Amino acid sequence: MNRGYLLVAAVLLAAGAKAAPLPDALKPVQTIQLPSAVQGPFDHFGIDLAHNRLFATAENYHAVLVVDINSGKVVHEIHGLAKPHAVLYRSDLNRIYVTDGVDGSLKIFDGNTYQLISRIPLEKDADSIGYDPATHLLYIVSGGKNVGESSSSLTTIDTTTDKKVANLKIEGETLEAMKLDIFRPKLYLNNTAKNEVDVINRFTNKVIARWPITKGTRNVAMALDEVHQRLFTACRNGQLVIFDTNTGKELQALPITQGVDDMTYDAASKRLYVVGNGTVDVIQQSDADHYVLLSQVHAAPVAKTASLVPQLDRYYVAAPATAKASASIVVFEPVNTPPYKADRPVSLMPVHAPHAEQLVLSTLSSHPDLRKLGLHAIPPGQTESVIIANGDRSRIGKKSSKGDLEAVKDGKTYCDKKEDGAFYNMKLPLFDAAGKSIGILVMEIPFTSAASESDAIHMAESIRAGLAKQIPQRGKLFAN
Q: pLDDT grade, residue 346 (50/70/90)?
């Protein structure tokens, strides 16, 4: 049996043996009744925290239901959709983005009036999405078997301009859920037709790896623990397969309820919520390789769509209509979880360093096992060191921390071994081609890439040497 497997209770459940009842990790707190005319399945939820709205895509009702979270009432129905699938709300623009599978498009609605603003054509069966809030790029799968093709499309749309910026053909007639690494260019995509995970470099728009799934079949749902480099792909045959995102290796498979369709990983509580066939499996992560089944909670008959909203401490489950009851949304409160902590607002300095950013993107592409990479320097006309380039662009302009500055003050390479996360935290002076110190280079190297601190130091300094050759002098970092 694989290392880190579920404890005895979960193994007994998977084998059909009798086991003591498990305590509930979810407490029902509310049921939101939906109109009696709403029939058929739901696909995905979206959330608007600023205006307390929950969006639910009712596929056969051909509409997105807008629910006021505070009152628990449906306050609007967005029609003009043939088969709504995924929904995203972008708060700064107050816009709602919905994929329409039958129409083969992304439809964009005004968040105040709910009127259609724009329609971006895609292939039929436009469905699952992934979103990068730092770049505002939206990734959408479409095409495949519903259009008679053996391949599908992954289309990238800039939600600021409402323009397509890339399209990638992927062999496989059915693509499902995806997840994005924030600090590196990897996008993980469930290629259900091939029973594999496809890894796409978002910077180059190319498939860089294909990870076969041997421990489960019909992989549909996906979740990511970026901190511990673990990818979870849930399979409808009743297996949750765990990958190491550095190596692409299957590490183990955990038993789950069959018929899964949605999954969420909550980093704060280190819990996985897996829903399918009316049941929510709540799995606790003790570390990257060890998991415990906390609960199997009956949510509603045939329920398979759910969403965790950590900011509200709520887990929403869509309950389709049955012969005995109208459709509803069952609201749960997670039990024994830490209170939500909002990120502190960060003041960002204005930075224009396109060459530095290109160096980071190309280095991350050539070293896809790096967890993080960032360049720090003092921009022209400023007096303080800030992050001028990073895999996560939302960090650009943040002041260098006191720890970063202190770590490189002696001119040596700093290496801190982090057991939780299994990586080496590296900080070293950044040099130009002439060997002059011009800033700070920060990176994280996973244990799978360096067997010791000396290996990590050698790797970091080698990467620094490659960067230095491309920087004739400090000003080049800020050149177009």
A: confident
